[in-house]
Structures are given as structure tokens and as C-alpha cells.
Amino acid sequence: MSDKFNSNAEKASYGIGLQMGEQLKSNPFEGLNLNSVFEGMKDAYTGGEFQVEIPAIQAAFEEINAEITKRREEEAKVLAAEGESFLAENAKRAEVTVTASGLQYEVLTAGEGDKPTAESTVRTHYHGTLINGEVFDSSYDRGQPAEFPVGGVIKGWTEALQMMPVGSKWRLYVPHDLAYGERGAGASIAPFSTLIFDVELLAIV
């Protein structure tokens, strides 16, 4: 740890910088220049003369936002195509069942309990990954089962849970339109992502 920040004011000021840095890091753009960021902060805080005219700044924002949108659309097309290719190959496996909606599943453990309805609340353990194997959520890793209404989750889960007897463990292969679609979910699930879940139905509560 550095000893440059000794007073509470210095520590708090550094904390503000950390917060701003995290915000910039979470939504960066190509060519982001921290020195320019610092210059703008200084001019705004001290009331100094702006070094770039506001219309020019607005035009730069618009151009960069257009570039970001275009790049995200291109990335989404690639993800959608990768997901479709993965599902097409996966559907050829004998152990995989494909439903009318396009949901794919395989039974890892066959349960013998009751099946929930769309109005039920269930307790499950689950492990969610992207098709590249990257884990984005796992109740197993947290060591705590999750409870939620069957009708309050993504479409692929709602469909699958109503077919699963309590005690079952299934692996779900969820097309993007039965998952988070064109919006994605947070930083971990990009738009048009196909998702894989291991879902263990523990109980109807």
C-alpha cells in the first residue's frame, strides 16, 4: 500500500478516483485517454476555460456511441450464429431431447416426485455456463440452493421445470430467445447468448 494518502481528505479523494475509474472500466471505448479525462475533470472543477468546445464534444460522443453500437451488433450476430451452430450439432446427440420451442435437454438423474406448475415455487441447485464453458452463475459454488417462482424465470427454465419431477437433475441447452435474448444480462451474459444449465429440482415449496 502507498503512503501518499495520509489525511482523510486525501483518502476520500483517492476513493472518488477509484469509483470513477471503475465506472470507466465497466463501460470503456477504444482510445479512452485518462490524461484527457483528468484535464476535463480539472477544468470542470476549477472553472477553467474549456479546451474543447461543447458541440465538438457532443459530436465525438455521438460518433463513438455509433461505433460502440455497430461493434455490439456485430458481436451479437457472431454469438447468435455460434449458438445456433452449437445447438444444431448438440441436437444430433441421442441423449438430447428437443422440444417444440427449441429448448434442448438431457436427463442426468431421473426423479420420481411431483412436477411443479407455472404457479409453483421451487427450490433448486443449478450451474450456468456459456457454450464456451465460462461459468456465469452457480448456486453450487455459493453452497446455497435458490428458491423462485417457476413462472418468474427465463422461458427455457419455466418450460423445463414443469416437465421435471422432484429429484430430477437435467442439463438444459437454452437458445437465446428462451434465455435473455437481445438484451443479455449484466456483464456476464452478452446479447443473443445460448446458455447451458445443470438444474437439480430439490423441492416444490
Automatic annotation (TrEMBL):
It is an enzyme of class 5 (isomerase). It catalyses: [protein]-peptidylproline (omega=180) = [protein]-peptidylproline (omega=0). GO terms for biological process: protein folding. PROSITE patterns: FKBP_PPIASE. Residues 119-205 form the PPIase FKBP-type domain. The keyword 4Fe-4S does not apply. It holds the Pfam family FKBP_C. GO terms for molecular function: peptidyl-prolyl cis-trans isomerase activity. PANTHER family: FKBP-TYPE 22 KDA PEPTIDYL-PROLYL CIS-TRANS ISOMERASE, FKBP-TYPE PEPTIDYL-PROLYL CIS-TRANS ISOMERASE FKPA. Belongs to the FKBP-type PPIase family. This is Peptidyl-prolyl cis-trans isomerase. It comes from Pseudoalteromonas piratica.
